[in-house]
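Narrative summary of target 7.
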Amino acid sequence: MTTVTTQITLIRHGETSWNANGRWQGHAPVPLNDVGREQARRLALHLAPIAADITAVYSSDLPRARETAQIIARTLELTVPLELDRRLREADLGEWQGMTNQDIEAWDYERWQEIVLDPSLPRPGGESPLQVITRATAALNEYVERHPGGHLLVVSHGGTIRHVLRGLDLIDIPVAKISNTSATTLFHDRDAHPHWRLQALTQAPHLGPDGGNGRQEG
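Modeled conformation, tokenized:
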């Protein structure tokens, strides 16, 4: 029996000014900065050899992800449509959105310590990791059903990518570093169990020897 295999290249958006300043972005409509736009262009050039194989492009609807996807699609001259999906958004960080780690420790120390000890807890007024896992993995499962045997580009966010990888049982511990515009390659085998397998984790050769920054939230 032939297995139908679908490839997903899961991409974190390019850098923003909030990334550079260590601010947690969540659902904030923060655009890319000039560094982030160049990162997206470099990623597109790196993907050029496989451009003809790309059958669909999906992106979080937040500006930083949408713009990353648009730069990639435009640079590669892709003819497939770009579809925006709220389910690919970063975790809702609630009251902590826009803050740095130092801000949160100073303003909300007790709840900060609770979440450090138990990262499964939701941020105050925001989402829990389980909620992010549920919506984002539902989106990916829907995409592979729509495009069996295809190669899909999916542009999302650092926290969401970590949660997806754990929710699909592809990693046991949190990823230490997810660089802006890094790419994680997943395969979905329709007739195999488990269906999902991890081919490459947060690769960013287009960013040079240091691999870019790894600021997580956003």
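The chain has one domain: 5-93+128-207.
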